[in-house]
Amino acid sequence: MTGARLPQGLLSVHALPADHHDGPWDHILVPDGIKERLLSQALLRLRHGRALRNLPGMPHGLMVLAGPPGTGKTTLARGLAQTAARALAPAGATTYIEIDPHAFPSEMLGQSQRNITTLFTDTLPEFAARRPHTVVLIDEVEAFAVRRSAASFGSNPVDVHRATDAVLAGIDLLAGSHPRTVVLATTNFPEAVDEAFLSRADLVLNLDLPDEATIAAILRRTLAELAGMWEGVRPLVCDDGLHRKLAVRCAGWDGRRIRKLVLAALAQRREVALDPNLLEAADLLTAAEAG
């Protein structure tokens, strides 16, 4: 479900698992152990949330993915929702909700607070009651839970404080009333997220830019996908020496930029653009040098 029919602040609502949501979890490449840690944390909350809420230091079901743009935070979060839903499917479906944090700021004093309160006390509980499990994604959460100690942003600082207070109260309320709910939050700027919000997280995972081994793996995967359409690219998929050389030249690049390198290589020469089967190692190296 998407579009104007949704309550304010919701970008989309889906029932998972769904075949058209497959892909992101398998396609994104991150260091070993990260996916397993995320999935285990989500499954623990979604499966045993009711029991866990009786423990001291109640878990909030909040997981924060932090890191520079292009490190795959949003893709990883979306893939996690689908993968967790598949694992839990025998116990029932999962509601997956994406929130637009930029929909809540308002120039009217107190309006942001009221909108966020409505989200957590009415909208999310209503959707969470429909199925046994719920996963909520808040992308760019720094626009939603603003660090109050630095709230000056040219808007009304009192309203910023009240809005963040409403987010914190809402997270607490949702954790207690719907314990089989996981909230995934991503941020490019963890230093801009309120400290109390981060302290409620059951897991804060910092994602770094790809290292050379991961860069080489991303290039290999991208070339393999290209070879599925143009068989002439196949030799480049197996050229580990080329992948290592490109990885050195692409140090410091994010995953999105690395994948686009292959597209840039296809456009280096007119004949390759017309027939990608003609792609050569030199085209990739030239594209990497050009940045």
Automatic annotation (TrEMBL):
Pfam families: AAA. Residues 59-211 form the AAA+ ATPase domain. Keywords: ATP-binding, Nucleotide-binding. SMART domains: AAA (SM00382). InterPro entries: AAA+_ATPase, ATPase_AAA_core, ATPase_AAA_CS, P-loop_NTPase, Pch2-like. PROSITE patterns: AAA. Belongs to the AAA ATPase family. This is AAA family ATPase. It comes from Pseudonocardia acidicola.
